[in-house]
Amino acid sequence: MKNSDKKEKILLDAMLEYEVDSPTFRARLGNGHGFSAYPSAQIKASDEQLKVGDKVQVHFSPFDMSKAMIIGKI
Asked: What is the residue range of 40's domain?
């Protein structure tokens, strides 16, 4: 596998602070960094309901730490 074929993943735990617009949330990491969080296709397809106050695991791109994809509840 070439280096360019690998996708870097940054997985972190966060808390959903408030809903900006369905299904977008404003979330915060433990260190205080705030960002926009969007549910992944798996979360949308499941019966899991996201709500303010939920602790979630998010996936950041290494190039943009202003938004992340919610990949699951903790």
From this structure: 9-73
Q: pLDDT below 50 — which residues of the chain?
A: 1
Neighbours of 17 (CB within 10 A): 14
20 vs 65: CA distance, rounded Å: 18
pLDDT number for residue 4:
53
Q: Has residue 4 been placed in a domain?
A: no
Cα within 13 Å of Cα(62), Cβ side:
5
Q: What is the CATH number of the domain that holds 64?
A: 2.40.50.140
Write the CA distances from 60 to 1, 13, 45, integer angstroms. Answer: 22, 11, 20
Per residue in 24-41, pLDDT tens?
Answer: 999 999 999 999 999 999
pTM of the model: 0.87
